[in-house]
Records
---
Amino acid sequence: MGRARLNRVLAVAANTFRESVRERVLYNLVFFAVVLTVSSLVLKELSLRQDEKIVKDVGLAAMDFFGTLIAVFIGVGLVSKEIERRSLYPLLAKPLSRDEFFVGKFLGLAFTLLVNTAVMTAGLAVTLLATGRAFDPGLLKGIIPIYLGLMLTVAIALFFSTVTSTTLAAVGTLCLCIAGRYSDILLHMKADMGAAGGLVQFLYYVLPNFRNFDLKSQVVYGDPVAWSIVGQIGGYALVYTAVVMIAGALAFRARDFV
Amino acid sequence: MRESALHLAGLTKSYAYGFLHRRRRVVLRSIDLNVPRGGIFGYLGPNGSGKTTTLKIVMGLLRADSGTALVLGCPLTDPAWRARTGYLPEHPYLYDYLTAAEYLDYVGRLFSLPAAVRRERALRLLKLVGLENAQHQALRRFSKGMVQRVGIAQALMNDPELVLLDEPMSGLDPLGRRLVRDLILDLKAAGKTVIFSTHILGDAEALCDEVAVLRGGELLKSGRLGDILKIDMAYMELLVSDIDGAALDGDVRARQPVGERWRLEVAAAALGTVIGSVERAGGRVLSVLPIRQSLEEYFLQAMGSEGQHWAAHD
């Protein structure tokens, strides 16, 4: 990648980051995530000797849930809003290729989510401190996969954002996120589906498996999680995100802006 | 022959529509056009005639079905010309969450301009379009006319050789229109080429060296305004004052009061007699011009009922 090309991608990414941090929806979601994490201080009173686990569990779940909402609701507007409002017309007339614009948009939101995840992690650490516990670095083995799952969610949102309207893109992305979290059901359905079993199995392998990114229970309950597992999850996220991004970029290249 | 700023050959575009997109509506039919460098070129036609479609194809926002285009001598696939070209889309929408200065800085980064150059140019251009006092205001607070001005500023951020403006006067008040007219003339004086589309004939007549006229996706005519608009040397237009034009005798074909003055149409052969009559009656002859067809008259003739409709809405 030439220096000029990298500069253009980073310019789009920086602008996307600025756009995201000026969206009111982002602050609302981060606020709720932090409130939820802090509210686990109340929940821990209801459990016996499980206070630390409750705080960790609620903190990681809030990070995952609100991170997904941010990835979906900001992600789906990244390209479709630019097309609907025609704000990308002057930009694409510059020495900025459609691929550069598309990758820049992805990197901008990816960085926004990185900052959000860091803020939520800090919120979790403060909440743990309030219970007299230190932040367990082992939690990162749960947090990193959450972030990787968010990257994939952004790529899916961006793909839908290039091929359809903002509303339909949100519906499509949410459906895939939910289906991907319960894809194990498809595998169990296979035996009961008879002739359609092959199709169900195909869907199981093709749909993004968001359960792969869920190590929350293991890290909260102290089950040993090797870094190599986190590495494998990273590989899965990288390959799947790259495939979805390439599909999105090809769809974006082919678009006519009427 | 001067080198082309824009050269189009056989440019054709259609859109699919109907059930399963099996029918096609042709919006541009084999457009051939040559825009020389260093002047102001008007791309004219009623709404829906294909002006915006042509400019979008040139800027890579739409793909032509067939035909070729060369911008500053480069094919569209060669990105080199983009750094030397500025473009204002029709009804631009800019980012709500940015200020005018931030937006121009973003545009400057896409041209890989150094930070100091970006700052200096953004400030200069905002002054040029009369927005220096609003540079730190969020664009969402801007009126339509102000957004149009920022749109023009972003088109000039790279100091382009060729500027394509799609309906640049749209949404502007009379002051804004005057500002843009002056800006276009300044660009020409600086040796730039300006191509602008408009359906407002007065703007084209006041500014353009050459024009192309579109109707229903077809190129009707292109060339110098003087060649397109017929000059009728058989009749002259006189502007006279200090006299009652209605009382004038002689070979006056038509007469019309214009405030305190009178506009008279007289046969060229009777010009001397009429001027003598005016002077004898104590009047003054302010101007004598051969009758030239106006662009509006040309359109009314060339476009039939479509032209009538257009003129009525101008």
---
Amino acid sequence: MKAARGEVLQGTLDLIVLKTLDALGPLHGYGIAQRIQQVSEDLLKLNQGTLYPALLRLEQRGWISSRWGVSDNNRKAKYYSLTRSGRKQLASEAESWERMAGIIARLLGAEGA
Amino acid sequence: MTRMRMFGSRLLGFFRKRRNDENLDAEMRWHLHLLAEENIRRGMPPQEARYAARREFGGVEQAKEAYRERRGLPFLDTLWQDLRFATRIMAKKPGFTAIAITTLAVGIGANTAIFSVVHSVLLLALPYPDSDRLTVVWSTFSSEGRGPASGPELIYLRERSRLFEEFGGIWAQSGAITGEGEPEHVRLGLVTSNFLSMLATKPQVGRFFLPEEQGTYAAKSVILSDPLWRQRFGANRQLIGQSIRLNGHPVTVVGVLPPDFKIIFPEGSSVPPDMDAFIPFPSNLAKDPSDQCYIRVIGRLRKGVTIPQAQAELESIGAQLRSEFPVFAEQALGLQVVPLHGDVVRNVRPALLTLFGGVSLVLLIACANVANLLLSRANERQKEITLRAAVGAARGRVIRQLLTESVLLSCLGGAAALLLGSWAMKPLLSLRPAGIASLVATAFSLPVFGFTLGLSIAAGILFGLAPALGTTSLNLVECLKEGGRATRPGRQRPRKLLIAGEVALGFVLLVGAGLLMQTFVSLLRVNPGFNSQHVMTVRLSVSGVKYQTHESAILFFRELQKKLAASNGIESVGVISHLPFDDTLPNWYSYYWAEGAPKTEQNTVMADYRSILPGYFQSLGAQWVAGRDFDAIDVQEDRPIVIVDDTLAARTWPGGSAIGKGLNIEDGNFRQDATRVTMEVVGVVKHIQSHSLTDQVRGQIYMLYPRAARAHMALTVRSNMDAQSLVGLIRRKVASLDKDMPVYGILPMDDYLEKARRPARFTSSLAVVMAAIAVLLACTGIYGVASYSVLQRTSEIGVRMALGARPGEIFAMIIRQSLLPVLTGVFAGLILSLALTPLLSGLLFGVRPVDPVTIGTAGVLLFGVGMLACYLPARRATRLDPIAALRYE
């Protein structure tokens, strides 16, 4: 179990957060963290605290925006949502990620063959 | 764009620190809460659920720190933190802080004050449109330096030049405005029609001259300066188009110049800055006699043309002039173009740069002093810094904090310097030489603030760096072992080096100031050829309708002289066309030669021509060399005789007597038919310095007034009356003869001399102030180091005394060790000054740049000051109680 849990690759956290917000709409920090754990089926090791500096960075770049709202159980919570330029960024990052993954896959495939 | 947004967000984060912290805290707490709840739902006991949540979340504080680092501006955060710490440290040691700030304020303030002069005089452009393309065009002659041009020359230049956009010319004269109200003397500029438009964009009211207004003999239009328009005509806009009386003739006011308009011309060009009125040249310049040179020419270069290109063109035009006009070939006429600004500041640039160099030395000394203070503080702060290093502070971080402290210190010094500088501005301005009076800014400007700020930061880093590096290069273990009672002699080394450096720089300043002082003293001792004490001068204009004939003017002067001489308290009264050291009038100078001189010796040497009436030499107390003075009969009979000065006599008739010889001179009344006449020399008088105290610029020829009638004349009155009642008396006597005669330019002869000494007074007094500051700083520096070393060595001294050292030995030891760096500094300063003082030679008079007496005095003075500074600490050392000293640790 322990061996299978991978560290979050540098730079991939951005993509993951953007994709999560794209898929689920506005979310608070806890929601994003839960979603990441859920999708990765707990295979991805994420110190949930590191999410917050990442969220700030994305917000500073203008890719996500945040506002204070009220959660399901009536508590003040900060909601993050994707901006238009964030959507563009997501598309271009996803594309380059897929290209990279394709290259790696081909490389590994060729070696395996 | 993204970067801008990022910076904006960070800047916001920097200022909203607390609110953001609270928000982040709430966000994270809630996150943890939700995680824990989830765990409870999965069946964990509450306590364990919370622990698990913490594990999943990771380090809360690390996350917060990472968040904060992204959020604000870490650079500013650190700076803010360091600044707060620095303020606390400084507040804790108010004495140290006050001394450091005062020292820096003096150093930086001196620089601020001098820089504000340098900036306004040397760096700022002249207040004219396209001023960087404005040039002065001088005519040069074989034997003489540069001079004005003649009318045909100017016209020729205009026709031939391709690289100049235009040429303009001016001739400063004087006139009188009569009619309604008091008669008023005006400084009148005769100008080409384009001259004013070259120096100003547009008139305040009305228009500039039209080309057809030039050369119409009787001047018909006039343009007034703003002050004259305000003072005499009450700033009446209706004046445009109206007629006023100038020199008795009606002229139409066509325009008024802008309020800040000034004519800024090089010194010696006889064009004063504050002209009252302008009229177009009345004569047709092209038809002027080609040997009457009186027009001061300015030219505006075309865009992109350089001075060397323009000079090359003017040289070829000069060659054409020489081939077309025989008189120019005879005089070997040449043309020279120089930038207007460069020419205006030509005389003051060396002095200003010298002073600027001097104040930077003062600042270096101040920095060395503060560095020394910081070094002794650093020793005290070793414990604190060692502790920081021990708990993991990086060396760079500690250096940064120490540098923040020193830069803060010097910025406070800079702020105090601005106060000090603005206070020092007034005496500084009162000393400025006349040549740059119109350029010097009277208030600080933005660039000056910028300079002070930049200088403060640079100084802070300069004096802070060495102590910061020194303190942080400590060996931790060593320091902790010693427990802060460091008495390592090696640590004294940088401080002694600083002292030696200070003393060396102070030595250079002392020598420089000494040389400039001696220059000023030599100038005071110069015998100008006359005795200026008790001589009052006033100017009178005998022009206009009333004085169209010479006889009427002579009558006026004779009566005035008679009336004044008869008054009690007046010794003698003279009349002259050009007062010594008065450069507001165009100088009158021309060629002369001995009667019968061969053609090759004609048109080679020039002399100053002066028009006088009997009594002038007596009133000035001039010294007779040979022959006789003019008398009333000479005037009455209109005799063709002259008096010359001794330099002219010796040059023209070497070894022989000048008396009775014939001298070929220019006709004083500029008659078109006979431009040259021969007159007999009847007297030789000692040269009267009239342009410079240091050079006998030209020989002098004195003609009698009727043979050289001038509209502008001056009265020289020797008396033992006080100035006020004397001036009142003169005014009354003048008015009794002619109520329309303006009396102006009332100035004791002493003032003219003072003006001539002013540049030397300016540089020497500033240099002395600088040297005094330097010596004071060096003195405090030496004292500081000596007393600190006594303090540090208290226990050692105690041991020595306990072992039987006598107080005298202790005293000698302290003195010896404290004076060693002083001696080193004096020696280094000696070498440095031998290298540097020759740079001053252009500013010196009556003393050589390498002057053993000055150097010796400086050395003795500094050594004495050093002795004085060590005396108290050394005496303190001898009075230590051995028991107390041993317990000192």
